[in-house]
Amino acid sequence: MLKQLGILLWVFLASFSLQANDLLSKLQGNQFLPVDQAFVLDFVQQDNTLKISWQIADGYYLYKDKFKLAGVAVNFSHPTYPPGMPYEDEYFGKTEIYLHQVVLSVPLSNIDKDAVLKVRYQGCAKAGLCYPVQTREIPLFQPQAANNSAAVLNDIGATSTETENKTATTASETESAPKSSQVELAERLNDDRSLWTLGLFFLLGLGLAFTPCVFPMYPILTSIIAGQGQQLSTGRAFQLSMAYVQGMAITYSLLGLVVASAGVKFQAYFQHPAVLIGISILFVLLALAMFGVLTLQLPGSWQEKVGALSNKQQGGSLKGALTMGALSGLVASPCTTAPLTGVLLYIAQSGDMAYGALVLYVLSLGMGLPLLLIGSSGGKWLPKPGAWMDVVKAGFGFLLLSVPLVLLERILPDSVLILLASLLSIGAALFLHTVQQQLQKPLGKALCWLLATLLVVATAQWNLRFWLPSPAPVAAVTSNNADIAAGQFIDIKTLADLEAELKKAEAQNQYVMLDLFAEWCVACKEFEHITFADATVKAEMAKIRLLRIDVTKATEQDVELMDKFSVLGLPTLLFFAPNGSELTRSRVTGFMPPAEFAAHLKQLNPG
């Protein structure tokens, strides 16, 4: 039976991969050009006539009906547009497009000083990528000032040369900037959609199985297995474990698709206190069922319903295991990692949900493999019928109570969290002490004593580290301070604040790092307390301008900033060159250890 299930699973993955390859064949080997290279804009003003031209790269086109003109301090007449080529577009239906080149001649009049003509246009790549609407401003001069026209033309030429130099500098900085792991993974997905790539993401998922985000799933699954007791066979244990892993994988994959489409705003909704508290209450009820005290907490009519639900979730049905797996997917959903971000980045750029869903599913299966192995062995390591079963189930009850602590860490103050964790740890130690007194064999007594001692010592260390004075975290200052000390974060709130800080950085020839974080983001706190606190990292951060924005409340200003930079998850660190352009290849999403992050910063700014 296990062999048949394995064959069916691989047949499903192979068929899904072939379908995804067919859908993405049009993108095979294609690297999309930046918009200014796909549509090269040029212009020249001759007295009262402005000629605007676009050189359109092969495989790209501009929409005829998307051109819009607007003047500032100038009057103009709309140009006569040349006939376009009829085209059946997947986005706008039947329309007309321009290929290779288009030239517009715009009559001008009443040109005042500092006049500007704004031009809007939009184009796409035939391979399936549609660029956002572009707006460019063209400076105009007054032709009646004939004696100054040459000087003005020289100024425009100088401005054009300066712009070209700045563009060249930006391109050079972008090419030399370090490439983050999620960007490399996204590029691999775009370039290579073979089974080898799927295997790579399966292995990456296997690595994620040993991260803190997945740890809460182990007590949940083991409690499901323990619910079957001595009646559990190896085959039944495999079925329950597989159902649990499938529930987790499906939820994780679907949430990934939604986040890729809606951005971090949707991720934030699932971290709402009401959602976290509701899921935490469910796990507390399941833990009470493990302790056998549920009858003391609920009326009789409620007890039957909740007890029945609890029994199903613990091990009575595959549907219950699938449901608990789906809930576990919610537990892991806020953990943004490099592999996950690589997939989300690929989906956001290509728009292909089918292949993205497949990769997310394979990534989730890798995360679930250790769970599957542990769960399938349940029939062997569970104890024989007797009083031991009650002890084991109570032990899993303590493990289940640790899950709400992981969830509520995102909304509870640290002092409350450390108090609850201490109570849980001391309670588990007292439970082990009680079990020790009932044992007869010296080995069992020694193990219980050792575990209880370790829990007490760990609890004492937690409290000493928390309550005793510790070094201050990385400082933050407000952006209106004139002199910013090296290595300090500047708190900003809006896009306008960011632009102002980028101008200050340009004046001082500084690189800029922008840290987007939220209180519900566990990895954000890991960055602050582990990576940013490292001495080597501090030395590298002192060389650049540090900005920070709190998007916990997801205000309109927060959403505007996240939409502008297409933020897919938190934590996200954006990097900007001294000229203010973002180094998109260097963006970091998800936790990065100190040594790796220090190397990333050093490569970004070697000076």
Topology of helices and strands:
Elements: H1 2-24, H2 35-38, E1 39-46, E2 49-56, E3 60-63, E4 68-72, E5 75-76, E6 85-89, E7 93-98, E8 101-109, E9 116-121, E10 123-125, E11 134-139, H3 146-176, H4 181-191, H5 195-208, H6 217-226, H7 234-262, H8 264-269, H9 273-291, H10 294-297, H11 300-316, H12 318-332, H13 338-350, H14 353-376, H15 378-381, H16 387-408, H17 414-438, H18 442-467, E12 476-478, E13 489-491, H19 495-507, E14 512-517, H20 522-531, H21 535-541, E15 545-550, H22 556-564, E16 572-576, E17 588-589, H23 594-604
Helix pairs in contact: 1-14, 4-13, 5-14, 6-11, 6-12, 6-16, 7-12, 7-13, 7-14, 9-16, 11-12, 13-14, 16-17, 17-18, 21-23
Walk me through the structure.
The chain is of the alpha+beta class and 607 residues long. It folds into three domains: 111 residues, Thiol:disulfide interchange protein DsbD, N-terminal domain (Immunoglobulin-like); 198 residues, no CATH class; 129 residues, Glutaredoxin (3-Layer(aba) Sandwich), CATH 3.40.30. 57% of the residues lie in helices and 14% in strands. It is built from 23 helices and 17 strands. A six-stranded mixed β-sheet has the order 12-13-15-14-16-17, with helices on one face. It has a four-stranded antiparallel β-sheet with strand order 1-2-8-5. A four-stranded antiparallel β-sheet has the order 6-7-3-10, with no helix packed on it. β6 and β7 form a beta hairpin. The chain is elongated and about 105 Å long.
